[in-house]
Amino acid sequence: MAIIVDIDVELAKRKMSVGDFADAIGISPANVAVLKNGRAKAVRFNTLDAICRVLDCQPGDILRWEPDDEEL
């Protein structure tokens, strides 16, 4: 997938655990793992809003695009 999710980087900067983060944004730790590991197919805007609010960041701080290998 060409969209990279950098939640783990932002959590590490803030020394925040996945469990605490999941509680703060209102989703399960398993769903946070799906996001972190790049297995998510979609992110709801209200979830993205909660992520940005809790991490005090912009969507571009946690989402970035990279071309797939076949696009190079």
Describe the model.
By secondary structure, the protein is mostly helical. It has one domain (3-61): 434 Repressor (Amino-terminal Domain). It has five helices and two strands. It has helices at residues 7-14, 18-25, 29-36, 45-55, 59-62; strands at 3-5, 63-65. It has a two-stranded antiparallel ribbon with strand order 1-2. Helix 2 (18-25) crosses helix 3. The two termini are 13 Å apart. The model has no long low-confidence stretch (mean pLDDT 92).
Question: How much of the polypeptide forms β-strand, as a percent range?
Answer: 5-15%
Structural class: mainly alpha
Full CATH superfamily name: lambda repressor-like DNA-binding domains
Main β sheet profile: 2 strands, antiparallel
Q: How many structurally independent domains? A: 1
Helix/strand order, N-terminal first = EHHHHHE
Name of the level-1 CATH class: Mainly Alpha
Low-confidence stretches: none
CATH architecture: Orthogonal Bundle
Q: Could you please say which CATH topology applies here?
A: 434 Repressor (Amino-terminal Domain)
Q: Enumerate how many helices there are, as a single number.
A: 5
Shape: globular
Q: How would you summarize the topology of this molecule?
A:
Elements: E1 3-5, H1 7-14, H2 18-25, H3 29-36, H4 45-55, H5 59-62, E2 63-65
Helix pairs in contact: 2-3
